[in-house]
C-alpha cells in the first residue's frame, strides 16, 4: 500500500459518512435559499450576483470551518483508537504516508462539498438573474477552498496528536471557538480583550495598529480580507478597525491574508506531523 492507496481508501471511507453529507446537503440548501431570496435594489443582474456571493462569503466564514472540522477531526484519531493505524504501518508505509494520505483525502472530500455548495448557489443565481460574473465566482471559490484547507490542516494535525474520539471532538470544538467564534462574539472578542489588557492593565496609550495586527491572526479575519482581493472595489468591505482619521498601514492590507493562510497551513501541519512521528502507537 502506497501514499496513493491510503489516500484513495480514506477518501472512499470519508465520503460515505452520512453525517458529513447531511451537513453538506443542509449547507447546499442554505446557499440555494440565500441565492433565491437575494435581490439587489436598483442593481443590474451581474452586480446583484456579485453582491450575492459577497454576502454568502459572510455566511461561509462561519460555516466552512464546520464542514472542514467535521470531515477531518477523526482522520487519524479514529485509526489510533480502533488500532487501524498499526495495520497501516504494518504494511510498507511510513507515518508520513499515513499523515499525508489522510490530509489529502480529507482535502478532497471538503473540496467536493464546497464545490457542491457553490454549484447550487451559482445555478440558482444564474436562473434568477441571468448573469454570471465568472471571475468573482471563481475567485470566491478559490479563497473559500484555501480558508477551508486551513481548518482541514488544523483538524488533521489535532487528530494526529490525540488518540481518542472524545479528545478529537473536544479539540475540534475548541479550535472553532478559538479561531472563529472568539473573533465575532460581542463582548468577549479578541479585540476587546487585547484592548483591555493593553490600555487598562498595562496602562499604554491606544494602539489601533496593534489591535488590528492581533485580529489579523484569525483565519476568519484573513478570509474576510481575502474576499476583497476577488471582488470589485465598490463591493470591498472594511474588516479591521478604522476609527476616524486613521489610515490602515500597508502591511495590514488585503494581501497579508495569503500570508496568514500560509502560516495556518504550515505551522499546524508541522506540529501535528512532529507529534505523530514521535507518538507511541
TrEMBL record:
Membrane-spanning ranges: 20-41, 53-76, 103-126, 132-156, 168-194, 256-276
Sorted UniProt keywords: Membrane, Transmembrane, Transmembrane helix
One Pfam family in the UniProt entry: ABC2_membrane_2
Cellular component terms (Gene Ontology): plasma membrane
Coiled coil: none
Molecular functions per Gene Ontology: ABC-type transporter activity
PANTHER family: ABC TRANSPORTER PERMEASE, ABC TRANSPORTER PERMEASE PROTEIN NOSY-RELATED
Protein name from the UniProt record: ABC transporter permease
Lineage: Archaea, Methanobacteriati, Methanobacteriota, Stenosarchaea group, Halobacteria
Amino acid at each position: 500500500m502506497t501514499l496513493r492507496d491510503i489516500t484513495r481508501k480514506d477518501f472512499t471511507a470519508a465520503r460515505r459518512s452520512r453525517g458529513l453529507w447531511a451537513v453538506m446537503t443542509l449547507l447546499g440548501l442554505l446557499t440555494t435559499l440565500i441565492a433565491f431570496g437575494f435581490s439587489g435594489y436598483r442593481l443590474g443582474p451581474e452586480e446583484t450576483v456579485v453582491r450575492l456571493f459577497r454576502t454568502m462569503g459572510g455566511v461561509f466564514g462561519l460555516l466552512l470551518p464546520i464542514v472542514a472540522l467535521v470531515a477531518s477531526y477523526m482522520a487519524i484519531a479514529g485509526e489510533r483508537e480502533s488500532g487501524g493505524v498499526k495495520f497501516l504501518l504494518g504494511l510498507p508505509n511510513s507515518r508520513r504516508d499515513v499523515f499525508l494520505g489522510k490530509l489529502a483525502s480529507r482535502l478532497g472530500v471538503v473540496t467536493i462539498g464546497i464545490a457542491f455548495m457553490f454549484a447550487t448557489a451559482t445555478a440558482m443565481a444564474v436562473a434568477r438573474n441571468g448573469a454570471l460574473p465568472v471571475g468573482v465566482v471563481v475567485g470566491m471559490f478559490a479563497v473559500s477552498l484555501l480558508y477551508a484547507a486551513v481548518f482541514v490542516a488544523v483538524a488533521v494535525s489535532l487528530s494526529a496528536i490525540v488518540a481518542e474520539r472524545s479528545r478529537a471532538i473536544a479539540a475540534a470544538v475548541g479550535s472553532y471557538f478559538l479561531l472563529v467564534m472568539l473573533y465575532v462574539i460581542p463582548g468577549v472578542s479578541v479585540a476587546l480583550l487585547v484592548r483591555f489588557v493593553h490600555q487598562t492593565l498595562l496602562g499604554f496609550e491606544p494602539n489601533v495598529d496593534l489591535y488590528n495586527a492581533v485580529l489579523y491572526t484569525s483565519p476568519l479575519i484573513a478570509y474576510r480580507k481575502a474576499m476583497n482581493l476577488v471582488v470589485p472595489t465598490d463591493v470591498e468591505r472594511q474588516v479591521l478597525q478604522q476609527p476616524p482619521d486613521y489610515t490602515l498601514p500597508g502591511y495590514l492590507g488585503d494581501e497579508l491574508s495569503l500570508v496568514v493562510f500560509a502560516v495556518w497551513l504550515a505551522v499546524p501541519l508541522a506540529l501535528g506531523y512532529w507529534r505523530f512521528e514521535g507518538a507511541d502507537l
